[in-house]
């Protein structure tokens, strides 16, 4: 301009860079969600203990993980589209220099095949990951008292007490004394859990004096 001043150029939105960052961040977030789900107990026990991590319960993490998988797939497709020419050129270059990469390719192939075979035959050192997951799923990290039957939290207190040979009046009395009164024995632990913000397991421990 005549007075020597100038206006900075407006930065153009770069779709290719956006897609690359989107792929990276969605993959990282998906990995976090996958780790969270690895440490969750089995579905019934998740409800029984009112399990949550970083403010999200089991269904919340499952929803986040599923949506992020979809996001990763979308960003991956867009990444291929935006970088198609570069990818083709890279592959052609590597194909021409393939003789120099045979050892690395063979080593990587053998490693992946070995891991796959170890998983299929359930080789103990590798399958230990699933053994640990199985223990977590059964509540080894979060459950002090397992439910007496799968839908115990949704059955009436009367049915629950009958299943564990507990007097309903005594159970209601213990809950009331602890500050969590129930209307009557027709209600259930799920309703009381939502009302008082305690897990069904915690309420069951109070009513059964365990």
What does this structure look like?
By secondary structure, this protein is mostly helical. Among the domains are: 13-94; 152-207, no CATH class. The protein has helices spanning 15-38, 43-49, 58-82, 84-96, 102-120, 124-137, 157-163, 168-177, 189-196, 200-207; strands at residues 52-53, 56-57. It has a two-stranded antiparallel ribbon with strand order 1-2. Strand 1 and strand 2 (56-57) form a beta hairpin. The chain is elongated, with a radius of gyration of 28 Å. The model has no long low-confidence stretch (mean pLDDT 83).
SSE layout:
Elements: H1 15-38, H2 43-49, E1 52-53, E2 56-57, H3 58-82, H4 84-96, H5 102-120, H6 124-137, H7 157-163, H8 168-177, H9 189-196, H10 200-207
Helix pairs in contact: 1-3, 9-10
Largest sheet: 2 strands, antiparallel
The helical percent reads: 55-70%
**Mean of residue pLDDT?**
83
Number of helices: 10
SSE order, one letter for each helix or strand: HHEEHHHHHHHH
Q: Strand percentage, roughly?
A: under 5%
* Structural class based on helices, strands and sheet pairing: mainly alpha
Shape: elongated
N-to-C span: 83 Å
> Strand order across the biggest sheet?
1-2
Which residues sit in consecutive blocks of at least 5 with pLDDT less than 50?
A: none
Total number of strands = 2
Taking Cα atoms only, what radius of gyration do you get, to the nearest Å? 28 Å
